[in-house]
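residues and backbone:
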Amino acid sequence: MSILIYAESAEGKFKKVALEIASYAKKVADAMGTTVTAVTINNSNTSELAKYGVSKVLKVNNDKLTSFNAKAYADTIKQAAEKENTKLIVLSSTTDSLYLAPLVAVGLNAGYASNVVALPVSTSPFQVKRNAFSNKAFNITEINTDVKVIGIAKNSYGLFEAETTLSEEDFAPSLNDADFAIKVENVEKVSGKVTIADAEIVVSAGRGLKGPENWGMIEELASVLGAATACSKPVSDIGWRPHSEHVGQTGKPVASNLYIAVGISGAIQHIAGINSSKVKVVINSDPEAPFFKVADYGVVGDAFEIVPKLVEKLKAFKANNA
């Protein structure tokens, strides 16, 4: 009756969130006197999971699951949970898993708590701490169902190594045509860049950059930091940047370790969507910009002077410490 996680991967490599929920599940499993089992989909090398506390892997290899399909993936996780007689399923808060979690919970007649930010307050009764009110507050949620599903907020727990001996088992869930009612025709991915979903650092900019032709310095800063680039809603609305980069309450939520906002005034919807980031740095020429009220560090000045100098200093630092 181990704890079950779904270890997400992309192009054969586990995502950081997979290792984070493995770390989380291992700590909970130790407290409950059990182990951690992971279900993987079309991933040949699972050895990395052992480093973060996973004792058993159910390996699913199915060409029909090459592209993400919420119904089919949820059914796979459900059947894995039933096979292992699992009472607790731990998922991440990626876009895919946020789609999956309710389907898994319904399939298992389980209670579901999203946005979990810490280890359980109690395991009997089962209580977890969660973000609430657009990350402005916390609440304690109690799940009373026999089977429980929880979704861990991004970057809320971290990676902790706990080496274990790993066993692998091939698992072939029973999937039918209903699982594939929605057909994936094409998947377009940006290559060579850090995605917002996986980024630990995000460099974001707004209308203060005056035009799309000035985004080169933002991309250069992101490149030096190994960060993802993002933008405010008005910027994506007027077509300066793609909508995939729009972050905030009405765009993609961000919970990075470092969020740098350049030329963004800080509308409440934007701040609500990035408020889970651990450190927020704001660069803005307006000292009255609302963003400064929530920033950990603020720089009042012209972004066109500050950002190039920051890039220069970072490059010099990296060169001296190579």
Notes: The longest strand covers residues 126-132. The two ends are 47 Å apart (CA to CA). Residues 136 and 242 are 28 Å apart (CA to CA). The helical segments are 16-32, 70-84, 95-108, 216-225, 233-237, 268-274, 303-320.
